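Hey L., structure's done. Input below.
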Amino acid sequence: MLTLGSRADAQLSYELRGGSASDGVIEAQRGEVTVALSDGSSILAENGTKFSVDIIGRNAALARLVAGKLHVRVAHNDDTSYRFIAGPYDVRVVGTEFDLTWDQQGAGLTLSMSKGEVHLVEPAGKVRTLKAGQVLHLPAP
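Output:
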């Protein structure tokens, strides 16, 4: 467990609940895992999901989804900058809620929006904007 910051300029931090981490990779092995961030954001990983979370700023984080499914809720702040990498895809978030699934060997990427808006950057650089209620399926390359 990391210490949560309380000052306005404090670095973002998080607490891992219900899972294990090894060499920076978080794995949900026996049920769900939650990453609770100090800005009020959260990442819920389904059983069997592997991912990592790196804090890169005051309200900024970079998560890499290796395999599985995440339910993401990002709290909006003026300088929020969250990114979720799934294979060759880059999901850029300001404040929103969505499900992100990645399967390198089969279904590819599925992004299902609950609230807010994200920008998805494809490997060739194409940017797609997705809003609440939209679902996008893209193949694994």
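Residues 14-138 form a domain with the Jelly Rolls fold (CATH 2.60.120.1440). Confidence is low (pLDDT under 50) at residues 1-7.

-- N.
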